[in-house]
Amino acid sequence: MGLGFEAAAPDIMSRPPHPLKVGVFTLEVMLDMLVYGLWMAALCLSSFSLVLFGFGNGDLGEGCNDSYSAACDTVFRARATTFVCLTWFALFLAWQMIDMRRSFFRMQPDSKNYFTQWARDVWRNQFLFWAVVAGFVTVFPTLYIPTINHVVFKHTGISWEWAIVLVESVLFFAGIETWKWAKRIYFRRQVTKRGGRIDDLEKRAFEAYFDGVAH
């Protein structure tokens, strides 16, 4: 819903119309879903493994799917760390999806605010901003309020594991930015091969949907 309130891209009126024959689920969209899903899954599994096997003793405990006990503490902490990572990744992805190709830190190519433009872009859509903030805030009650954490979510409060969450979040951003960068390189080459010129990558790359030569 928050993304639905996002302002149109600055160059939307200079892009060619999206052809109906292409549809919503283009090859690019489906590939993005696959890549982002695999990257999120890999990071979540690594966070669980680090807490349980890397820094923990690897003890899976007994009956940990039914109730909390001292033997289940490591498993519950691993679950909590994974839960926070997955939640934060989903929230970060909403901001990343404001533009499918431009960097999150450079969504306005003509802006002179090189280091702060991303903050302006995030604040511009306040519905999405506060939705993401609410998502961040609701993580903490599920971790630290008794009964809700142990009984409902089957995890427990974490402490030093927040360092893993922060590192995983940085890696998530790095992975998404790397994928977007690779896509920009690919579309830049496609435009060049078809005899087009590249003045603004994302604007020109949309012409890859058409059979005509980019101009």
Key words describing this protein structure:
single chain, 215 residues, mainly alpha, 7 helices, 57% helix, elongated, disordered C terminus
Task: Tell me what you see in this structure.
This protein has one domain (32-209). The chain is mainly alpha-helical. Residues 205-215 have low confidence and may be disordered. 57% of the residues lie in helices and 0% in strands. It is elongated and about 65 Å long.
According to DSSP, the number of beta strands is: 0
Q: Please write the string of helix (H) and strand (E) elements.
A: HHHHHHH
> In percent terms, what proportion of residues is strand?
under 5%
* Shape, principal axes of CA atoms: elongated
Helix and strand composition category:
mainly alpha
